[in-house]
Amino acid sequence: MKMRNIKYIVLHHSATDYQANAEDTTGKQIAKTICDRAQEQWKKEFPAYICDYHFIIGHTGEVFKAQLIEQPSWHCTNYQANLVSIGICFLGNFENIEMQIEQFNTGVQLIKTLMKQYNIPLTNILRHRDVVSDITHTTNSTECPGKNFPYIHLLDALRDGEPFFDIGEDYKCINEVKFLKQLGIIKGDGKGYFKPKEYITREEVMLIAYRIIKLLQN
Ligand SMILES: [Zn+2]
User: Fold this and answer.
1) pLDDT in tens, 137-190
2) Which of 10, 54, 57, 105 gives a 20 to 30 Å CA spacing to 198?
3) Closest to 6 measured CA to CA, from 81, 99, 58
């Protein structure tokens, strides 16, 4: 089967309960139900269709392979994006719960591997809600993958020690930035960018001063 041109990874949550039943500790049953439903929906048009996601990551960090990577899947409501992306679904409803470390770590490893394999830049790791919907023509047309989804932490882990997207080891203040970020004094723009040439607001100055003083008081 010919490989697709893959440019993006799109992250989802399943918005399902923690487990289907008492025996389903890994989420395997829920993963199967998700695949079964998709197959039922698409069986006429695409008899070989497996799932709306290429990978499903269970609560305990188990990876369930779903749709073949060579095949697009209909995971985000954007036809063009579906053709050139890999969909990863984290089991759970991250509107309500926090992600456990095992599931998080597996996600990081899987995404790292895929980024390397398909040469996908970090800026193309998106949440479902970041994708422009074909229906509403805007982003944020869904809550997926939920407000507690640890997107910034995930990007931090994928960046392998680089503090922000837009500055690298060649940036003249990289050591100062790393130092202050580690202490939690600077946090960037909340989307993983430092924006070194942009103006700072009164509010940001106040927050930075507050964090420094707090730190000194401890
Ligand atoms: Zn989604």
Assistant:
1) 999 889 999 999 999 889 989 987 788 888 888 999 999 999 999 899 999 887
2) 10
3) 81
Q: H/E element holding 111?
A: helix 101-118
Compute the distance from residue 119 Cα to the ligand 1 centre, in Å.
23
Contacts of 37 (CB under 8 A, 6+ apart): none
Is the overall model pTM greater than 0.85, yes or no?
A: no
The rounded distance, in Å, linking the Cα atoms of 108 and 112 is 6
Q: In what order do the strands lie in the sheet with 8-13?
A: 63-65, 55-57, 85-90, 8-13, 125-127
Kindly give the distance from the C-alpha atom of residue 127 to the centroid of ligand 1, in angstroms, as a whole number: 8
- Asked if 143 and 96 touch (Cβ cutoff 8 Å), the reply is no
CA 12–ligand 1 middle distance (angstroms): 4
CA distances from 159 to 82, 106, 163, 188, 193 (A): 25, 15, 7, 14, 12
pLDDT at position 1: 65
